[in-house]
Every structure is written in C-alpha cells, then in structure tokens.
Design goal:
The chain has about 240 residues and is α+β, with helices and mostly antiparallel strands. The protein contains 4 helices and 11 strands; from the N terminus they run H-E-H-E-E-H-E-E-E-E-E-E-H-E-E. Strands 1, 2, 3, 6, 7, 8, 9, 10 and 11 form a 9-stranded antiparallel β-sheet that branches. Strand 4 and strand 5 form a beta hairpin.
C-alpha cells in the first residue's frame, strides 16, 4: 500500500511537471529568417504573456528597456538593410529562460571600415569612469569586440560580442543568455561562421579584465552598479549597418 502511494505521488509530480511545461510551451522557439529580426525586441511580449505573474518583471531580467541582462546598445533597434543571416532561439525554463541570437551584416568596404572604427572608439563615460569594449584577437577565429562576458558556462551566463570578418566585410553579432538549455550550441549549429572561442569560455578573461556586474563575475561594458545606459556614449556608427 505504501509503495502504491509513493508511486502515485511520483506519477502526479511527473504529470504536474509535464503539464506545466506543456502549459508554458517549453519547446524551443526559433526564428530563422531575416524578416524576423525584430523578434529580438518583440519576444518580450510573448514572454510576458506566457509565464510571468501579473505585476512582476518579465523574465528577460535586468538592464534597460529590453532586458536580456543587457542594454543591447550596439544591437540596432531597426532591422539593418545589410542583414545577411539571422537566427533567434528562446527556450522557456523553470528559473531563467535561455535566449540567444546570431546575425550577420555584409557591408561595403567603406562602411565596414567605418563601423570597425566605431567599435574601436566606442566608450561609455559614467561619473568619471570610462569603459571600452574588450578586444580579443587571439581566442576566436575572427577579431572579437566583447560587450559582456558574464558567468560563462553557468545558469546566469550572458555572452554578448561582435566578430569581424575582414576578408568579407561582414559583421557578426552573437548573444546568449543562460547556459542551461544548450542555446549557445544551437547558435553554433545554425551559423555559417565559427562563433565560439577556441578555449574554455570560463578561461577567456584574465583576472584584470573581470569585474562584478551585478549578475555575477565577468566583464561588462555597462555600469557595475546598475548595468543601465546611464552615461555618455556615441552609437552613431551603427548607421553604417544601414
């Protein structure tokens, strides 16, 4: 009798979890066409409708208007006309959702050079502190400009960086939030480019490059106090993506 009761309890728990996952539609949601670019910003509507209790923040968590644990300052709000590839994945989860996107923009030689110069010179000035993107020319297949590299390999992972294909005048954007659901691996699988570093993600940063971001240790170009866009910056070079 006791075993039967335990068995029933286990079945109820399993069915409850399955039912909840079905209700929350936990299967991966993807967008694969360039016309879907705006989903980067529109997904917040689906997330709120799907699983966030009334009166609470959406599960894209913190930083700025669109969350993602980022301000997405360097991710264009409007769809670039130079957009060549696009892939977005969202996997609803129990604690934190997995979100990731990859896209490329193929530019003219002149626009490419101007855009890269903008990345080189990009700074955020905040109360006497100046922050720059972290440039890495050793650990990826292409020069990388890192916007954020937080808690790599962990639940609260945020990887946000831009790769530069100098041979083909192409800008490669990569973003991933949370390491729980394999979103980063799916980005790699669905990208024409090799986007992952050649070393363990956890070993990419030196101790001097790390700071506490509010969500964990790593690097962020944003303020360590609040991660928002408070400060002075110039993103006019994004216009070269057209």
């Amino acid at each position: 009798m006791k075993k039967r009761v335990i068995g029933v309890i286990i079945i109820v728990i399993v069915l409850g979890l399955f039912g909840s996952c079905t209700a929350f539609n936990c299967a991966p949601r993807t967008r694969k066409k360039t016309k879907d670019y705006q989903y980067i910003y529109d997904v917040v509507k689906d997330v709120n409708m799907l699983q966030v209790p009334e009166g609470k923040k959406d599960s894209l968590l913190g930083y700025g208007e669109y969350m993602f644990n980022s301000v997405l300052l360097l991710t264009p709000r409007n769809t670039p006309s130079t957009l060549d590839e696009f892939y977005y994945i969202w996997i609803p989860g129990w604690d934190v959702d997995g979100h990731g996107y990859y896209f490329t923009c193929k530019l003219t030689s002149e626009d490419f050079n101007n855009f890269v110069e903008g990345l080189e010179n990009f700074t955020i000035q905040n109360e006497g502190e100046e922050r720059r993107l972290l440039k890495n020319t050793e650990d990826f297949s292409y020069p990388a400009y890192i916007v954020q590299w937080i808690e790599p390999g962990n639940e609260w992972e945020v990887l946000e960086y831009i790769l530069i294909d100098e041979t083909n005048n192409t800008i490669i954007y990569v973003f991933n939030m949370s390491n729980l659901y394999g979103t980063y691996e799916k980005l790699e699988k669905n990208s024409k480019y090799e986007i992952s570093p050649h070393k363990d993600k956890k070993e990419l940063l030196t101790d001097d490059e790390k700071n506490y971001t509010g969500f964990g240790w790593g690097f962020s170009v944003y303020s360590t106090r609040n991660g928002d866009e408070t400060g002075t910056y110039d993103i006019s070079f994004l216009e070269y993506l057209r």
